[in-house]
Design goal:
Strand order of the largest sheet of chain B: 1-2
CATH architecture of the largest domain in chain A: 3-Layer(aba) Sandwich
Shape of chain A: globular
Largest interface: A-B, 26 and 21 residues
Strand content of chain A: 25-35%
Helix content of chain A: 25-40%
Oligomer: heterodimer
Distance between the termini of chain A: 45 Å
Number of domains of chain A: 2
């Protein structure tokens, strides 16, 4: 018995065939993973199931019955609920209000808050989804927000729950809690569609896996009879090196150092509190932590984008506190920012302007006071070749490249400045396994060239596989320093939730 | 210290409070209109234009029918019509809401100015056409001091307070209100829950036309019984300031409007005080008091008053 059958779904967007005769069958009461690179068409497929898009061709069956889903309202009626990757919550409303929004209980003419609270509490208890019903969504943790989203689907009577990349924002402990909840839901007869590109999670939680690539289904596998390598091959279409192998490399002298750094966030609260560390040439220092614990502010301070309240920065022993981004770049610092669309490149600019940003004034690209376009075009062609940016069109607009290729442009630009110290923030966020492999190789190559590297990432796997030393940040402070070969994911996870190294060691 | 004495005398004069209330009344209505529109996510600076058109329409229909209440009703109708234009442009066509609002203000000024001549035969100002009389409330009118303030006053003042109470209930206690607030904060989330984002926004903007239309009716047939060109005189913008200062909450908007009303009343009473001599050259300075107050409160408090997150951002499905 299938809970969901999507047969021969075709969905076209201008210039793209997002779903090309996709067929998906999901057994009732199972956890079914859908994996694929970014742009493979997973989310498009799920959005059609939830009625946000409409298929150009193909049919959808729910519990064997043919349905036409015109909008979320129809999907909800069919018992489908979706937890979006970016949460669909109203920050200023309370948890209870968010859950019932759109199908609110009534008492006369009034909104029945009492009943809303009661129903939310009941659901929360039944499935072990701990939430604070009266808290405003803006005041609760990301993990709790996700639980609110799940309760929202249950409140609407969902039997089929779509989870779109649910683990991307969670700590390892929260991931375990989520998996426990998913198992509970499954034992209650719910069907779960789990979209992910983290293969070890897929292996751990799912019963079956559908693999998508370039809008098509490339594989349909029983989880117990497959392995991550096989899934990755279906995803990328070739063999992929999943685990980074990093050679031993002796770090040299210190290239960059911060001492007692204090930085405030936009609200004027201390975001980085008395942080000190150093980065040596040929060494990767990883900073792990849950998003929003001061990493963004730390990176902005180091790269000259944010004011430093107190403390000092030294570049090759020279005090560079208060230097502007341009001054820092001239010292030999490069920066791959965490949000490539916000700080990495300009969507409306052609590739050739994007790759000279920051170096635009250098004689390499200029002819007196003017830009030398011939030189710029030549340089861009070389860079796109070297970093395998596709399509290889130098006049392609920044915003029109895929995420992976945008990142390659940024990485290429920064690496080509021949930095001595490289700040890399979330380098593989939202990228597929193929692009991740490429970016990781580039970072390791820089290490071999004796560049000092500061790596900030939410992805623990990335931190573990690349770093020589790991610093864990929590509420603006460093909880401890560990070496990847001497620690465990659990230990780092403990520190990420506010336990100092000594406490984490004690358990 | 004659000036201190003059100020003291103003504050113990019931007339000051009565003028404060009546000056606040159009601001209360108009700022309520702002609240309805902006909590659903549509910036509505057209309030100024809607008020002006409402003031004009109510005079025209009062003059035609001889019944001020028909005039008031038609002011509401004209307000909704102009608000509908704003809704259509900013919701359906996702236009820039500030540019649209500005255009609508200019249109309202143009239409009312142009129609003066063909309808009333002269530009500038109409003749007296009739006004909504003050009502005397037995029981209250006899109370010392308070009776002098609200015992005999325009019914619009009472209507304004009732409108605030109604709006507070609607926005904070009903399902519709919850949906309005959700649409202004996160329309995408509301959409995924099957809420009709466009419908709710239309409702918010059209309701702003109702309230701003009433505000306009009060300016003309509610207060003076005639229409003067450009008689809204920037009060639509002060109402926006009151809305911001009131944190997009009907009760807050009421309190802020009262503050602005009081400053107008203060300026008015000081000018007519017999203790100090106010020459004609200085008078305009007193008239500036409410506007200076606007700058101070908006600059000083705007950081603490957070607009709805999606305020001013057109919602486009699947974008």
């Amino acid at each position: 018995m299938y809970a969901v059958e999507m047969v021969n779904i075709v969905k076209r967007f201008p210039g793209v065939l997002a779903n090309d005769h996709v067929t998906l069958r999901v057994k009732k009461g199972s956890i079914h993973a859908i994996v694929g690179e970014n742009g493979a068409g997973k989310s498009t497929l799920m959005n059609q199931l939830y009625g946000l898009y409409h298929p150009d061709e193909g049919e959808i069956f729910i519990d064997g019955k043919k349905v036409v889903i015109k909008g979320p309202r129809d999907a909800i009626k069919e018992g489908i609920g979706m937890v979006h990757q970016h949460f669909m919550l109203v920050d200023t409303l309370t948890v209870a209000e968010n859950v019932v929004l759109g199908s609110e209980p009534k008492k006369g003419l009034n909104f029945d808050l009492k009943r809303a609270r009661k129903e939310v509490m009941e659901l929360s208890e039944k499935y072990g989804l701990t939430v604070d019903v009266d808290a405003k969504v803006e005041d609760i943790s990301v993990g709790m927000q996700q639980r609110v989203e799940i309760i929202k689907t249950l409140y609407r009577g969902a039997n089929i729950i779509i989870l779109d990349e649910p683990t991307a924002v969670l700590t390892p402990q929260e991931v375990e809690e989520l998996f426990a909840i998913m198992r509970k839901l499954k034992s209650d007869g719910k069907t779960i569609l789990f979209i992910s590109h983290k293969l070890h999670e897929v292996m751990e939680i799912s019963d079956r896996v559908t693999v998508m690539r370039l809008g098509k289904v490339t594989g349909e596998l029983e989880t117990s009879q497959t392995n991550p390598k096989e899934i990755a091959r279906y995803m990328v279409g070739r063999d992929v090196v999943l685990t980074v192998t990093k050679e031993f490399h002796e770090p040299k002298d210190t290239v960059f150092e911060v001492k007692n750094l204090v930085v405030k966030d936009n609200r004027g609260l201390v975001a980085v509190n008395d942080v000190s560390f150093e980065v040596k040439r040929g060494e990767i220092v990883g900073i792990a932590g849950v998003a929003g614990n001061g990493q963004t502010e730390l990176v902005e301070a180091i790269t000259g984008l944010r004011k430093i309240e107190s403390g000092h920065m030294y570049f090759e022993g020279k005090d560079v506190t208060g230097f502007t981004p341009r001054q820092l770049r001239e010292q030999g610092m490069a920066h791959i920012p965490e949000d490539r669309l916000k700080h990495g490149l300009i969507k409306e600019f052609e590739a050739y302007y994007n790759v000279i940003l920051g170096g635009h004034y250098k004689t390499l690209f200029t002819n007196g006071p003017f830009l030398n376009h011939n030189k710029i075009f030549e340089y861009t062609k070389q860079l796109m070749e070297e970093f395998d940016v596709r399509p290889r069109r130098i006049e392609h607009l920044g915003g029109n490249f895929s995420g992976g290729n945008q990142q390659k442009l940024v990485v290429g630009r920064e690496i080509n400045t021949n930095p001595k110290f490289l700040v890399v923030a979330q380098p593989t966020r939202g990228l597929d396994v193929g692009a991740i492999e490429f970016i990781h190789k580039q970072i390791l190559k820089m290490r071999e060239r004796d560049v000092g590297i500061l790596l900030i990432s939410m992805e623990l796997e990335e931190i573990f596989s690349l770093s020589d030393r790991i610093l864990v940040m929590y509420e603006g402070e460093i909880m401890g320093e560990v070496r990847p070969e001497e620690t465990t994911v659990e230990e780092v996870g403990m520190m990420m939730t506010g336990h100092r190294l000594e406490e984490a060691r004690r358990g | 210290m004659r000036i201190v004495e003059a100020i003291f005398l103003v504050f113990i004069n019931p007339l000051f409070y009565k003028i404060a209330l009546t000056a606040a009344t159009p601001l209360i209505f108009a700022s309520l209109g702002g609240v309805y529109s902006e909590i659903t996510g549509v910036v509505n600076i057209a309030l100024e234009g809607i008020m002006l058109l409402g003031a004009f329409t109510s005079v025209v229909f009062t003059w035609l029918t001889g019944n001020v209440w028909i005039g008031v009703l038609m002011a509401v109708v004209s307000g909704v019509a102009l608000a509908w234009l704003h809704a259509w442009g900013s919701i359906k066509w996702a236009g820039n809401q500030v540019v649209l609002g500005t255009a609508l203000i200019l249109i309202a000024q143009g239409i009312t100015g142009f129609l003066m001549e063909p309808i009333f035969g002269k530009p500038g100002q109409t003749d007296f056409v009739g006004k909504v009389e003050e009502i005397k409330i037995p029981g209250i009118a006899e109370i010392p001091f308070i009776g002098k303030v609200i015992g005999e006053i325009s019914p619009f003042v009472y209507m304004a307070f009732a409108a605030v109470a109604f709006s507070w209930w609607l926005i904070y206690k009903t399902n519709l209100g919850l949906r309005m607030r959700s649409v202004g904060e996160n329309p995408e989330a509301a959409d995924t829950l099957g809420i009709n984002v466009y419908g709710i926004r239309y409702f918010g903007v059209l309701m702003s036309g109702v309230w701003a239309g009433l505000a306009g009716a009060y300016l003309s047939v509610g207060e003076v019984g005639l229409f003067k060109e450009l008689m809204s005189g920037g009060r639509g913008f002060i109402a926006l300031a009151a809305m911001i200062l009131g944190k997009y909450n009907p009760v807050g908007a009421l309190l802020a409007s009262l503050l602005f009303g009081a400053s107008t009343a203060f300026a008015n009473q000081m000018q007519s005080s017999s203790l100090i001599h106010v020459s004609d050259t200085v008078k305009p300075l007193f008239d500036m008091i409410p506007f200076i107050l606007t700058i101070i409160v908006v600059a000083g408090f705007v950081g603490k008053s957070r607009p709805p997150k999606a305020d001013g951002v057109p919602y486009e499905k699947g974008a």
